Amino acid sequence: MKNILIYCVLAVLFFSCNKEEFTLSTNAEDFFFLEHEGAKMPVQVEGNTASGKLIIVLHGGPGGSGILLNEAFTSFFNPLEKEYGLVYYDQREAGIAQGSFDESTLNPDQFVEDLERLTALIKDKYGAETELFLLGISWGGYLGNAFLAKEENQANYKGWINMVGAHDFLQIAELGRERMLFYGNQQIAFGKNVEEWQAIIDVCNEMPDIENKDDFIKINSQAYQAMGLMSDSINTEISSLPISEQLGLAFTSPYDANAQVSHQINIRESEFLDRIIAEPLQARLPNIKLPVLVVGGNYDFVVPEGALQEQFDLYGSEDKSLVILPRSSHQVLAEEVTETVRNISDFVDAH
User: How confident is the prediction along the chain (351 residues), in pLDDT tens digits per residue?
Assistant: First the structure.
């Protein structure tokens, strides 16, 4: 049975309407909300919290959903939940997060502050001695990088797992463009999906410079189409959800697709992407000195290997590893899952 608890976060102090702490369990199912600066963000904590190790998952997007990841990628997360506690939350203006839409709070600093509040709340409710790890996916990688670049935030974590995470949005678009041109010409030479690849190549050639949000969105869209054309080279271990699970997601899960779409529209129409694009993180990555695991896909055209290599090189950590999965794209929660879960478990166990 889920423990339901609502926390109100004001300034740096937490005032709760119920001070009962969660009981540590090998099969936890805790659900509560984090309220801060006008946002009411849902948090699910599941798995083996009795292990003393919790992994906080930062979803992609912006505008994705940690709640959806938990429900839709059980084959990826369930093996990890057997060993550790997993913390899934929906960031402000994402997933099923609630609250009034406020353009002024859609900036990287606010998202970092939200994560700081969540970190303190998790430590408060599961014990100050609990060992925390951070796992960021795609946009969540950017958020994790920005969060951990503050030295005081690193003190609360044992390790950082960057899965296909970004650090410079214009750079990843440019690198993605180059990869699509390379593989597009290669696939055409092989006689594979010639018309589709030619259309992608034409778009890439029309955009020799990636300069703004509109350019980024256009290249990003082409990248997802291109990865779909590489299916013969990609090892997809998790296919689409069975009908029974889709019905469960629709009717028994807290996830709400309509709410997420609304958030994504708000983000697209706001200046949030402009703000992220204006704040590349190269200069701040050397500040990150805790253990780091970077995971990427060889056929990732959204956050290509070159972007992950640059982050890996810039991290100030002396304990860091880079894994490029040979038959994966950007969808690392569904591709070469067994290998990725093993790498994560080995990393967490070692630290």
Answer: 444 433 333 333 333 334 446 789 999 999 999 999 999 999 999 999 999 999 999 999 999 999 999 988 999 999 999 999 999 999 999 889 898 778 889 999 999 999 999 999 999 999 999 999 999 999 999 999 999 999 999 999 999 999 999 999 999 999 999 999 999 999 999 999 999 999 999 999 999 899 999 999 999 999 999 999 999 999 998 765 554 555 455 555 566 777 777 777 878 888 999 999 999 999 999 999 999 999 999 999 999 999 999 999 999 999 999 999 999 999 999 999 999 999 999 999 999
Superfamily (CATH) of domain 3-169+236-350:
Alpha/Beta hydrolase fold, catalytic domain (3.40.50.1820)
Give CATH 3.40.50.1820 domain extents, the chain.
3-169+236-350
What is the per-residue burial (b if ≥16 Cβ within 10 Å, else e) of 207-219? eeebeebebbebb
Within the chain, residue ranges assigned H as helices are 66-72, 74-83, 108-126, 139-148, 151-154, 169-189, 194-205, 213-228, 243-251, 257-269, 272-277, 305-314, 337-350
78-100 core/surface letters (b: 16 or more CB in 10 A; e: else): ebbbebbbbbbbbbbbbbbbebe
CA distance 86 to 82: 10
Asked whether the beta carbons of 193 and 157 are under 8 A apart, the reply is no
